[in-house]
Amino acid sequence: MPRDGYFIVIEGIDGCGKSTLARHLAQKFEQRNKAVLLTKEPGGSPLGKSLRSILQTQEEPLCPAAEFLLFAADRAQHFEHVIIPALKAGTVVISDRGADSSLAYQGYGYNLDRTMITNVNQWVMQKILPDLVLYVKLDVEKAQARLAKRNLGLTSFEKRDTLFWQQTAHGFDAIFAERTNVVMLDGNLDEEALLAQAWQALEKRLK
Q: Is 1 within the bounds of a domain?
C-alpha cells in the first residue's frame, strides 16, 4: 500500500510503561507540528472500544481462541477505518500495542498455534507492517509491582498468574530477537529518560 505516513507500534507486557510513552511521543510530534494519531489495540475504533469492554469485564473466562479472535476482529476494523486512512494522509501513527501482542499473549502465554495467529494477523492488517516497533522491556516482577501500586483495580488480563506473564515476556523476547524494525527500550527508566531513549531511536530512523 503506498503511504506517506510513518507507523510506530509500542509493545511490552502490562506495567512496562508503554502507554505513558505512547502519549509522550505523540505530544513530542505535536510540538514539532507533525500530524500524529495516537491509537491503541484494543479500543482504537468504536468497535474496538466495545470489544475492549468485553475483554476486560468478562466474568466467565474466555477461551484463548475466542480471546484472540476478538482481538483479530478489532485489529481488522482498526486497520481498515483508522490506521490505513491515517497513513495514506501522511500522518505519524502511534499505536499502543499491535499484532505482536497477540502473538506474545495468546501464542506464547496460552500456547495457541503461532503460525495461525501470524497468518490471521497478516490478513486483517492487509500485510501492513510497522515501520518501527518500540519494545519496552521490563522484568515481570517489576511490572506486577507497578500494577499493584496503581490502586486502580486489576483488569481480567492483569489478574493472570505469574507463569502466564513469564511465558508472555519470553514471547516478546523471542518475537523480536531477529527483527530489524525493532528497538528495545529499558523499562526501568523513569518517564523522561524512557522518552529520551525512544526519541533518539526515532530520530535515527526518521533522518
A: no
Tell me the β-bridge partners of 182.
133
Task: Kindly list the distances between the CA atom of residue 36 and the CA atoms of 23, 39, 40, in Å, as whole numbers in the listed order.
Answer: 11, 10, 13
Count other C-beta atoms under 10 Å from residue 6's C-beta. Answer: 20
CA distances 166 to 14, 63, 137, 160, 179, Å, are 12, 19, 12, 11, 21
Distance CA 26, CA 92 (A): 9
From 125, 87, 103, 98, select the one nearest 18 (Cα to Cα). Answer: 98
> Residue 79: inside a domain, yes or no?
yes
Q: What is the mean pLDDT of the chain?
A: 90
147 and 158 Cβ atoms separated by less than 8 Å: yes
Note whether residue 150 is domain-resident: yes
Q: Give CA–CA dist 179/104, Å, rounded.
A: 15
| Count: domains in the chain | 1
End-to-end CA distance of the chain: 22
- Is this prediction's pTM over 0.85? yes
Instruction: Render pLDDT for 34-92 as a digit per residue (tens, 0 to 9).
Output: 999 999 998 888 887 887 777 777 667 788 999 899 999 999 999 999 999 999 999 99
Backbone angles phi, psi at 78, to 5 degrees: -60, -45
Domain-located, residue 146: yes
